[in-house]
Amino acid sequence: xxxxxxxxxxxxxxxxxxxxxxxxxxxxxxxxxxxxxxxxxxxxxxxxxxxxxxxxxxxxxxxxxxxxxxxxxxxxxxxxxxxxxxxxxxxxxxxxxxxxxxxxxxxxxxxxxxxxxxxxxxxxxxxxxxxxxxxxxxxxxxxxxxxxxxxxxxxxxxxxxxxxxxxxxxxxxxxxxxxxxxxxxxxxxxxxxxxxxxxxxxxxxxxxxxxxxxxxxxxxxxxxxxxxxxxxxxxxxxxxxxxxxxxxxxxxxxxxxxxxxxxxxxxxxxxxxxxxxxxxxxxxxxxxxxxxxxxxxxxxxxxxxxxxxxxxxxxxxxxxxxxxxx
Length: 326
Prior knowledge:
Largest sheet: 2 strands, antiparallel
Low-confidence stretches: none
Shape: elongated
Structural class: mainly alpha
CATH architecture of the domain at 106-325: Orthogonal Bundle
Distance between the termini: 9 Å
Helix content: over 70%
CATH topology of the domain at 106-325: MetI-like fold
Number of helices: 12
Number of strands: 2
């Protein structure tokens, strides 16, 4: 287990570097000037000062004492100057938010997206496991058929459709909770539920299928032959086996929930990272784009590492295989 974690931790920065490099290449391939503001006839001195402030150019003094401007190499800007100003100095400016640094934007928006993502992930696991267990226990009954139908609908509908339906039905018709804004628990219910439902449907289907497979295994029949109650058979034996495919799915599901919050945050007017990411792409704000890519790549790698550790904890064969490989 220790060697397994060590290998994953060593691969962590390499994964971030690979993702960041892909984002840099895409940003460089995008057409247009990233510092173009739409204003006409700006003085040359103003344009040059902006390019120096954003590390596209820099002032140098030659041997004769003459000050001139030269472009900053792209690799130095993207792989040294901007990461240093973002992670160490905290003064990396955003291209379209002249009064805000990228660090300030992340500090204000990231906690909102984290709260929304954690709440949505918790709801998806709670709803998915509950529905999947009830469906498998009552296989062939009306509850099983209903859960399968609802799961198919939840998987098929995109989040913006689910969000719009919830806004109309729960927010406008029933007037049960607010439909926009952030700050109160009631304002988090609809967006979290919108994000959670598609993934809850996947988890329910995985749980149902894994439980039905577990019920056919010899260890479950042995537990029943020993006289254990159905609840003990379910909780102590079958459910633990059924959690393996669910845990495998939670890594990419968690990453998808956090990145999928872009649309939901726009629908419900939530001041999270999704709003800034969409606007940064529209405005070609390179510094903000690359910073958010690093944040989401860190989330993805961290969630996958946590899921691998949980998988090894639930399935002892993973630990045995890791020791044998070491």
